[in-house]
Amino acid sequence: MLERRNPLSKIVAVTPLMAIAALAGDVYLPLALTGLALFTLLVGGVAPKRILGALIPLALVALGFLMLYPLIVRRELVMHTPAIARIGDLVIYAGALRFGLVAMARVLALVSLSLIFSLTTPVDDFVRALVQQARVPHRVGYAALAALRFAPLLRDELAQIRAAHRVRGLARSGVVGELAQARRALVPLLASAIRRAERAALAMDGRAFGAYPQRTYLRRVTLDWADVGLALLLWAAAAAIILALQALGWLGPLSFVQRV
């Protein structure tokens, strides 16, 4: 199960693959890495519904690259390729469409690989791994964790403030109304955030947080051979994909960015 693996091992495992996807000069390599990422998620126990729920909105962003690139690509880079469409004075070339396909494939690969970490890593475990394995000072790690836990509380607080404004007849529609409502909600929301921060600071001080250079942990995040094996398996699979595409002549040139 991917959720049991050390968060840092998942970062180490997917970072080189994301770098390779960013270097891809053709669609085959990033699409193959996308398939590898989705296969890893499914084998790792992530429900297909969760994968689709996270992937579909970001896939729409990737589709935007496909639609945008043919319109902004430099003409001298693609004018030697066949023209596939004409919209007034605008000519869309096959080369420009290829640039868009490569950009879309890159984004899909990067998003899919990032899901291996984001969908299977609780924030608490990530902070524990940073403190226990990466030697991040526990003052910094747990203070950041406390701040992250404020986010859902402040979201609920904002919903209550908006509901109170609607009861008082202050809610308005349209952009101007939304801006006015946001301005009215800013002061009480800021006051609530300050109160919560003061209470958290007093609670941490009352428990002698940071009083000693070392601390004990109720739960430890371990780094074992299964975590190392996850990284090695993903690297080996990526290497096999690259070698197979190279043998088929589908790897394409590797470049960090394509000039548009």
Concise description?
It is a multi-pass membrane protein. The chain is mostly helical.
Explain the overall architecture.
The protein has 260 residues and is mainly α. It folds into two domains: 2-125 and 222-248, no CATH class; 136-206, no CATH class. 71% of the residues lie in helices and 3% in strands. It has helices spanning 7-23, 28-43, 48-72, 75-78, 94-118, 123-132, 138-167, 174-206, 225-248; strands spanning 83-87, 90-93. Helix 6 (123-132) runs antiparallel to helix 7 (138-167). The two termini are 42 Å apart. 23% of the residues are buried. Mean pLDDT is 82; it is low at 256-260.
Task: Supply the key terms.
single chain; 260 residues; mainly alpha; 2 domains; two-stranded antiparallel sheet; 9 helices; 2 strands; flat; disordered C terminus; ABC/ECF_trnsptr_transmembrane; transmembrane
Which word captures the global form?
flat
Strand order of the largest sheet: 1-2
**Over all CA atoms, what is the radius of gyration?**
24 Å
The largest β sheet comes out as: 2 strands, antiparallel
How would you spell out the order of helices and strands?
HHHHEEHHHHH
Euclidean distance between termini CA atoms: 42 Å
SSE blueprint:
Elements: H1 7-23, H2 28-43, H3 48-72, H4 75-78, E1 83-87, E2 90-93, H5 94-118, H6 123-132, H7 138-167, H8 174-206, H9 225-248
Antiparallel strand pairs: 1-2
Transmembrane segments: 12-39, 51-69, 90-117, 228-251
Membrane topology: Multi-pass membrane protein
Keywords: Cell membrane, Membrane, Transmembrane, Transmembrane helix
